[in-house]
Write a structure and sequence with these properties.
Blueprint lengths: L8 H8 L7 H5 L3 H7 L2 H12 L11 H12 L4 E5 L7 E7 L2 E8 L11 E10 L5 E5 L17 E10 L3 E8 L15 H11 L5 H17 L3 E6 L15 E6 L5 E8 L6 E5 L10
Antiparallel strand pairs: 1-2, 1-8, 2-3, 3-4, 4-5, 5-6, 6-7, 7-8, 9-10, 10-11
């Protein structure tokens, strides 16, 4: 029987396609031949694609091996949709790969009461690599500029991003900005320029603003006073199309009383006899079936 080490490096690389990336460092220490094969960056490129559906390293300025070991092993499985645990209002987070970073975006319902307008996406945080190949996580959640000039487009703040286990919700993703000057207190918040500008952005030119104002006022106080700290749980959406149904499952926009426009999720039970609509951007309960 021939020794496996006598195989060409190209075949050894193909064999390593079947070895989980977390085990490659152990393969690396067995012998010099396998070490040299493991250090071929195309091996790690395949691991990034196989295990984390990562396809382009453009903008990262590191090789695939470094990206896998320092970023994807820790944060790659965060990519997807997450639902915010936020009092009565909920919320939606999308984490995706971007050029040179993993980006978290807050997904908001359309401004005003026009349901045909597109969803809004606001950058919340980025995960990237510094020139010294260390992981950097920063908040880029920008609000209207404060009176003292803080805030606004382009400002970054240190933040903490971590995953914890919850007995009922499973994984919980926590985000916290550590800059104390960024924290807003509820008391007299409605008198601050940042609140007035937030209200203006939410209503735009909505003719029904007076009807929505009491609810939006309460939402704005809670939203702005908690902008430094978020908690999310994974949002699982239907992954396959349903046949013989009038509406395919997925995310939808809809008007919800004086709350304005909300984001909702629609799905069917296994035998297609019931449809369930779950509110994503309001309190965690379900509409009538």
């Amino acid at each position: 029987m021939s020794d496996i080490l006598s195989l060409p490096p190209e075949l050894l690389s193909r064999i390593l396609d079947y070895v989980p990336g977390r085990d490659l460092p152990n393969v690396c220490i067995t012998c010099k031949t396998l070490r040299d094969v493991v250090y071929v960056d195309s091996v790690w490129q395949m691991k990034c694609k196989q295990e984390y559906n990562f396809k382009s390293i453009v903008g990262w300025n590191v090789n695939y091996r470094t990206l896998y070991s320092k970023v994807l092993r820790r944060y790659g499985d965060l990519v997807g949709l997450w639902r915010r645990d936020f009092k009565y209002f909920g919320g939606l987070l999308q984490i995706k790969y971007d050029k040179g970073c993993i980006k978290g975006l807050e997904v908001l319902a359309p401004a005003s009461s026009c349901v045909d307008r597109p969803l809004r996406k606001k950058d919340l945080f980025t995960i990237s690599m510094t020139s010294s190949e260390t992981v950097q996580i920063v908040s880029v959640h920008n609000f209207p500029e404060e009176e003292d000039g803080r805030g606004g487009e382009g400002e970054q703040r240190p933040c903490i991003l971590r995953v914890e286990k919850d007995e009922t919700k499973g994984r919980v993703l926590e985000y916290k900005v550590t800059d104390k000057n960024y924290i807003l207190q509820k008391e007299n918040l409605t008198d601050l320029p940042v609140f007035r500008r937030w209200i203006s952005d939410e209503f735009e030119d909505d003719p029904n603003a007076n009807m929505y104002f009491p609810c939006y006022r309460r939402r704005g106080v809670d939203y702005l006073s908690s902008r430094h700290e978020y908690r999310w749980s994974p949002l699982e959406l239907p992954s396959k199309d349903r046949v013989n149904v009038p509406i395919q499952p997925g995310l939808f926009k809809g008007t919800y009383s004086a709350h304005g426009i909300e984001i909702l999720s629609l799905d069917y039970n296994d035998d297609l006899t019931e449809v369930t609509v779950t509110k994503i951007t309001v309190r965690d309960n379900r509409l009538d079936r």
